[in-house]
Design goal:
The protein is α+β, with helices and mostly antiparallel strands.
């Protein structure tokens, strides 16, 4: 019965793709067998297409997924970060996918608020606008006023969202599992992990208390940053399905004309977005991962206020150390060292050639080192890395998908506000601070001292295994955290490479 249910859902998916002329997009995905699009067309031949559809397959696919519901929107947004799965043209088309749905009724919003906070709506808010100001796949937002007179934004979870996500994500898991059992390339790309990441992200977004906690943590990390802040959380009016926070007046970063008319310095705003992202990712390892232009508001004094913290990303200390190690190798143009780090840490399988991998790193890095820094694009670099390292069976790390996506989005926003933005001049202050903190002799000594107790604690067990002729595992980069080393994504390599190029330019000025 479960298989029958999945087949019915699969047919409904095919029908949705047919309406938007998106079945053709499947032919461009390498993992999809050639017979599949033909079969779907034959099964849905009687369904008429909509008129006025765009020519690009990726945009048609984005429209189809948006029409099919919340889980498909989240899947499309995840696939937009994986050109290795869907190809660069489709990934670019899916990047246009907007998380917007029609709002649900005020009566349902009121019912949720009263159930979650207790009492009546008027007990918590002096006024409450019945019309939602924004509606997405997970929740919608209303403007309200607290009894003390403060204006607030109230985010209310969709009543049926959990059931819809559970149903659709089960289908995705079934399809990913079948692909991994039958296609070797699907196992390398870890499709089930991609779906797990979607599920994990969605479950986190469906508890608005976690979103409030994420906003509070990020606000604490960025408290010393000028020109950037987060709205205040109203904890007394927040529960699992209701989030109340400060109402922010200003201009969305997406409205370039309005920003110019208000007299804001657009290049400065673009620079600030990139520097804030790098600071969060490199210094703190905790960053705002839904960095599209609609989630950044510019106040009258030029301060950027970030909103919507349902999607956050983390970078472990191990991953940041890996970034520092490969950065050091690229600064010295020591590609064999970079390759060896990948092999020692297990990021590239042992059956691959160390020398050939080092040569592949050189083929990517040398041309970048010879380019003017303003001509190096993070997005293009990621595309080249996916194409070059695929043959070395490098596995991706699902938790870094958000970081890859945010990196490209930050660059895109800077170029939106200032088409002549020089990413490396913008990044230089943050990069210099990060290098001093991670690559200086003092930082390396402090790191070694902090790891010494853990090394001594494990020493007796290692000696015992060695004395009994058992293989002693080599851990060239011990992790102070309890989690074992995991397979790497391309993002640390990509960021290390582009930061290395920038540092090289700085040192040769």
């Amino acid at each position: 019965m479960r298989t029958l249910r999945y087949l019915i859902q699969l047919y409904m998916l095919a029908a949705g793709l047919r309406r938007y002329g998106a079945i053709r997009a499947l032919a461009g995905i390498e993992l999809v067998p050639a017979w599949a699009p033909r079969t779907l067309r034959a099964l849905t031949f009687y369904i008429p297409r909509r008129r006025g559809l765009p020519d690009a397959d990726g945009e048609r696919l984005a429209m189809a997924l948006a029409a099919m519901g919340p889980a498909y929107i989240k899947l499309g947004q995840t696939l937009a970060t994986r050109p290795d799965l869907v190809g660069r043209p489709l990934a670019e088309g899916l990047a246009t996918l907007q998380d917007r749905l029609p709002p649900f009724s005020f009566a349902k919003a009121k019912e949720t608020i009263e159930r979650e906070l207790g009492g009546k709506l008027s007990d918590h808010y002096a006024s409450f606008d019945e019309t939602a100001v924004a509606a997405a796949s997970i929740a919608q937002v209303h403007k309200a006023t607290l009894p003390c007179g403060r204006a607030v934004a109230v985010k209310v979870l969709r009543p049926d969202v959990a059931a819809r996500f559970t149903r659709d994500l089960s289908l995705f898991e079934w399809l990913a599992g079948m692909a991994e059992r039958n296609v070797r390339e699907a196992r390398r790309l870890r499709l089930t992990k991609v779906v797990e990441k979607v599920r994990e992200t969605v479950l986190r977004e469906m508890d608005l208390r976690l979103e409030a906690a994420a906003a509070a943590e990020l606000a604490e990390n960025m408290s010393s940053e000028t020109g950037y802040r987060l709205p205040k959380i109203e904890w007394d009016h927040t529960a699992k399905s209701v989030l109340t926070l400060e109402w922010v007046d200003g201009i969305r970063l997406s409205d370039k004309d309005a920003l110019e008319a208000a007299g804001h310095d657009l290049p400065t705003l673009g620079s600030k977005v990139v520097q804030v992202f790098l600071t969060q990712a490199l210094r703190d390892g905790f960053f705002h991962a839904d960095l599209h232009q609609g989630n950044l508001i510019v106040q009258a004094d030029g301060t950027i206020v970030a909103i919507d913290f349902g999607i956050m990303g983390r970078l472990s200390k191990l991953e940041r150390r890996f970034l520092a190690e490969i950065l050091y190798g690229f600064i010295r143009w020591d590609y064999m060292r970079v390759a060896q780090i990948h092999f020692d840490a297990g990021y590239v399988p042992k059956d691959q050639s160390l020398e050939e991998f080092a040569q592949a790193m050189r083929s990517i890095a040398d041309p970048i080192m010879d380019l003017p820094v303003e001509e190096i694009s993070a997005g293009q670099l990621l595309a080249q890395l996916f194409a070059t390292t695929e043959r070395f069976s490098m596995q991706t790390q699902p938790q870094l998908l958000l970081l890859q996506r945010t990196m490209v989005m930050a660059e895109g926003m800077a170029l939106h506000l200032n088409p002549r933005a020089n990413m490396w001049n913008i990044s230089e202050p943050v990069i210099e601070r990060w290098i001093r903190a991670n690559l200086s002799p003092e930082a390396r000594l402090a790191d070694a001292i902090s790891n010494l107790p853990r090394f001594l604690e494990r020493l007796p067990a290692r000696l015992e295994r060695w004395l009994t002729d058992e293989e002693v595992p080599v851990t060239p980069m011990p992790d102070p955290e309890p989690a074992p080393p995991q397979k790497s994504s391309l993002f640390p390599f990509a960021l290390g490479l582009i930061v290395g190029a920038a540092v090289f330019k700085i040192l040769t000025l």
